[in-house]
Amino acid sequence: MSKQFDLIVIGAGPGGYIAAIRAAQLGMNVACIDEWSSADGKPAPGGTCTNVGCIPSKALLQSSEHYEHAEKHFADHGIGVSGLKMDVAKMVARKDAVVKQNNDGILYLFKKNKVTFFHGRGAFVKSVDGVYDIEVSGAAPETLQAKQVIVATGSRARPLPGAAFDEELILSNDGALRIGAVPKKLALIGSGVIGLEMGSVWRRLGADVTVLEALPTFLGAVDDQIAKEARKAFDKQGLKIELGVKVTDVQSGKKGVSVSYTDANGEAQKLAVDKLIVSIGRVPNTEGLKPEAVGLKLDDRGAIVVDDECRTNLPGVWAVGDVVRGPMLAHKAEEEGVAVAERLAGQHGHVDFNLIPWVIYTSPEIAWVGKTEQQLKEAGVKYRAGTFPFLANGRARALGDTTGMVKILADAATDEILGVHIVGPMASELIAEACVAMAFRASSEDIARICHAHPSLSESTKEAALAVDKRTLNF
Ligand code: FAD
Ligand code: NAI
Fold first, then answer.
1. Is 454 an active-site residue?
2. What's the burial of 236, exposed, middle or buried (CB within 10 Å: 0-12/13-18/19+)?
């Protein structure tokens, strides 16, 4: 006998589990299926984000940052440390414990909201008269039925052709988060978000890290001025970044990995490392979903084709998060999940794709929302720019972290804020003020007139807003 639901959500990453909870809050009888298992075979909902993405990477970034502070920066504060030791196994175990807290938290939230959870793989079987049959394969196979289905099956790491992941020597994000001891030499292919975050973790812990990037520009999607400032900081830290390279061959053996490539000058190079992380982007996950069983349309990248409201080509089937177009970010997946659940309940769910913040959790952190200066130039928009360096911020000086700046771009005629870009301490938290301001279509003058606590890093945002009108007070 099939079990009947109002809505079946396939995938319990941030897109799926949040959609399931919101739909249950709105009165629907919801099933959520997820196949992720922890090492002991137990359900581990939360998807890439919780298990091998946002959460574990931030746990290791935090631990490695503490280590680097103790090693290099405590002395500036008059604190001497002797016998500093690193226990990578404990660091990784702590990270695993943080992941488990999040897995358990989601199971608790499912119970609290009366979402029925199924551990296993969900696949389309057929649709008859607008009702979809979804088969759950796993320890306890089941068939579920519903008129509405949300696919939130996420993404997985893209391998480099000819260099399959073995998670021992050639690592995806998964293996990169459970390296058991600090490699002497580490290479990363791709200087995108994972390349910089994971490169930072292992550099801080003592690895000699080289990042090989195909494009000639560093962080091309980031505002040029901010990317340059970040690059300066990474160079100073000893993170070696080579741009414009073409990787020609990867060989792994007993001694480690050998990467052959052509550098930006066209010279052939060879790099021998203990481990290689490949972080060249991610591909949508539709493996095992059997989209062909119901005629669900995919594009040539394998992503599920959706409109602006996450509707697929099939009535009653929706798709959200990494498995569809748009940035592969947890909060984007969540927003889409909530919006679809609300649409199903007859409400007007909405995602403003121009207001999705980005954060790269390196040190300095890089965060932005809205348009970059180069995008405004390209679009011929007239704007005014204001910047304020953390060097001139009292709290940053007290913290001992004065790298970077806040930059605000505002429309030249109306003063509406069009983009905010931050490189520096706690950029991940500071960007929230910019999101709020832009959601309310604030002008730079609005921010300039708001009282900000002193001393705080957020005063730099206010000063950057004053700088748009060329009237900073502290610089
Ligand atoms: P996922 O989180 O991938 O979840 C999909 C789930 O569906 C998985 O549990 C999968 O097992 C399950 N599934 C797939 N197919 C089936 C099936 N047929 N049946 C049942 N279950 C299935 N984003 C940020 O915003 N901030 C960050 O700091 C950040 N850090 C990251 C760090 C790393 C190393 C990586 C790799 C990613 C990071 N991301 C970050 C991106 C973020 O993880 C993704 O954007 C987010 O997880 C996408 O959510 P999702 O729900 O679409 O998919
Ligand atoms: P990415 O798209 O951020 O970066 C990939 C980089 O690899 C690009 O710079 C690209 O030019 C380069 N590249 C591609 N092919 C290459 C090749 N053959 N040789 C050398 N370089 C090559 O992808 P990444 O870092 O794998 O991360 C995937 C996604 O996961 C991110 O785009 C982001 O959406 C998400 N993520 C988000 C985080 C955050 O929000 N803090 C953290 C980590 C990941």
1. yes
2. exposed
